[in-house]
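User: Sequence in, structure out. Go.
Assistant: Echoing your sequence, followed by the structure tokens.
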Amino acid sequence: MSAHAPLLSVDQLRVEVDAADGGGAPLTIVDGVGFSIGVGERVAVVGESGCGKSVTARAILQLDSNVRLSGSVRLRDRELIGLTNRQLAGVRGREIGMIFQDPLSALDPTMSIGDQVIEPLTVRGVRRKAAWERATRLLDELGIANAAQRMKAYPHELSGGMRQRVVMALALISDPALIIADEPTTALDVRVQAQVLDLLSDVIAARGLALLLITHDFGIVGALAERVLVMYAGRFVEDAPIDRLLSDPVHPYSEGLLASIPQISGSMPRRLPTMPGTPPPPQLERVGCAFAPRCPIAIERCQTETPALLPLGSSQPDGSGSSVACHVRNESRGVVHGVRA
């Protein structure tokens, strides 16, 4: 692997599930997406519920047995698609840690906190006493008061914020290079959300970890991510640095998402704009741009031709610019590779 090779590289990832009635064509949940994450890079995937964000994240670690995967997921120079469960066990937790959105469901109610946190270490042969001491120090680092006593507690005895810290400890205990955080603050109140986000940001920075953040909340994105992938109907429609996306969104869907964020100011409150319609269901045959039925600038070409995710003409040589999958915006702004230059 070269010094500049990505830590994680996803190419043409496709996720399909069988139709609920067992007949007909399989349903496409994620439709040929590709992206990469560098060492220490923080990337967010945003979009409405049901657009395929969490499915994409879970597909990286192949956590869902009822789906069919195709394409490529490479961690450093190792292909993950096609690995056996035994081989994947060496990747899950050890090289890629995952923070789930519902900590109560992610934790085993019949096991103590300590036994759950140390398990990734003991299965690798670390002595129980050493593992217990290491886990206690980690819980203390993550802001859990009386960590030694909490190690003996059970999940139902902890608050939601404490349980989320335990889930973070499970993701971090084996010193992975990449953390996947799937809506990490959904189940928490606003005050605890802020605490957990600050903690996650500090831990990621201190350890030099890469982050793949899954969220629908642009406030979280601004606090944690350097780069944002906007997802709609199982495809990426925009890829941009966070500052650029927030100041100059290019895809109409990105514009709509940002316009719907409430703004705090001294002026009278305004009615938030909304996007008409809903995302298409997976069983709908996809022809053209999936966003076209909801798009205010769609043209005839959008109804018949699926736009590719292409770098804009203003993109930088180091890849720090934006890419967008929109016929209209690519034509008006110019693209690096495609119809215009």
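User: And one key feature?
Assistant: The chain has 13 helices and twelve strands.
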